[in-house]
Amino acid sequence: MGQRITVVDAFAERPYAGNPASVCVLAEERDAGWMQEVAREMNHSETAFLRRRDDGWALRWFTPTTEVELCGHATLAGAHVLWEEGHVAVEQEVRFHTRSGALTAVRRGSWIEMDFPATPDEPATEPDGLARALGVPIRYVGNTRFDTLVEVEDETALRKLRPYLRRLEEVGGRGFIVTARAAGGADYDFVSRFFAPGAGVDEDPVTGSAHCALGPHWAEHLGKTDLVGYQCSARGGVVRVTVRGDRVTLGGQAITTVRGELATT
C-alpha cells in the first residue's frame, strides 16, 4: 500500500473554502528531499508531515519550494486528520514537536484550538519598493519574527489590493501580512491578506502563523485580547485569536475533502 495522503480545508466551515493543506501521517522517517518533492507535487501552500513519537508527534511543513518554521493551517489540518483517522482519541490533546517548539491542539466542539507562540511586530522603516509593489498607501510597517506586517487605510483598500507579486518578491523576506481594521458592523475585528511569493506562495488563502502577529498587533490597538480575524482572500476564512502574553490561541474549523494515496513513494 502506498503512502496515504489527505487534503483538508483548514479554517473552513464548509468544503472548498479556507486553506487546503495536504497531510501525510508517516509510518517511518523520510528525508527532507522526499518531503519537498511531495509538497511540490501537491502544490498546496503547505503540506504537513507527521510521525509518531513517544511523547507526541513530530511535525514538519513544506511549501512547494521550501520548508518553513511555523504554519497554522497545516497544523490544524494535521490535528484534524489524527483525530478523524483514529490515531489520537477525540478527547485527547495532540502535542506536536516542531521547529518552533512544542505546539498543542484540542477539540472544542466543531472548533480546534491551537497553542502557538506569539510573534509580535516591532515598528520598522518601510522597505524600498514596498508601497509600489502593493499599489496602495501604507499606514504602518512592522517586522515580526518571520514576516513584514503592513497596515493599510481600511478594509475596502485591503480587499481591492492587487499587488505586483514579482516586485513584492524583490522587496525580500518570507511574506507580507497586509491588514486593516474591520469595517463597522462586521462580525470580526480585523481583516488581513498574506503574500509570500518568495516562498512559492503568491497569496495564501488563510494563514494561521500570520495571526500569531495579527493577534498581538490588534490586541494593542483595540484594547482586547479575544479577537476574531477574517482573511479576505478569494477562499476566505475565520480565525479566532486569544492573546496570552507570549502565546496565542488560534481557533478554526476543518473539513476533509480528499483521501488517497501516493502511488509512487
CATH superfamily descriptor of the largest domain: Diaminopimelate Epimerase, Chain A, domain 1
Global structural class: alpha+beta
Mean pLDDT: 96
Q: Please count the beta strands (DSSP E, at least 2 residues each).
A: 18
User: How many distinct folded domains?
Assistant: 2
CATH architecture of the largest domain: Roll
Q: Regions with pLDDT < 50 over 5+ consecutive residues?
A: none
Q: Can you tell me the overall shape?
A: globular
Give the ordered list of helices and strands: EEHEEEHEEEEHEEHHEEEHEEEE
CATH class of the largest domain: Alpha Beta
Helix content: 10-25%
Tally of DSSP helical segments:
6
Summed up, what is this model?
The chain is of the alpha+beta class. It is built from 6 helices and 18 strands. Helix content is 20%, strand content 41%.
Characterization of the model:
This protein has helices at 32-42, 73-84, 130-134, 155-160, 165-171, 211-222; strands spanning 3-10, 19-26, 47-53, 56-62, 67-68, 94-98, 101-108, 111-117, 122-123, 140-143, 148-151, 176-181, 190-196, 201-204, 226-231, 237-244, 247-252, 254-262. The mean pLDDT is 96. The chain has an 18-stranded mixed sheet that branches. It is of the alpha+beta class and 265 residues long.
What is the topological layout?
Layout: E1 3-10, E2 19-26, H1 32-42, E3 47-53, E4 56-62, E5 67-68, H2 73-84, E6 94-98, E7 101-108, E8 111-117, E9 122-123, H3 130-134, E10 140-143, E11 148-151, H4 155-160, H5 165-171, E12 176-181, E13 190-196, E14 201-204, H6 211-222, E15 226-231, E16 237-244, E17 247-252, E18 254-262
Parallel strand pairs: 2-3, 4-6, 11-12, 13-15
Antiparallel strand pairs: 1-2, 1-18, 3-4, 4-5, 6-7, 7-8, 8-17, 9-10, 10-11, 12-13, 13-14, 15-16, 16-17
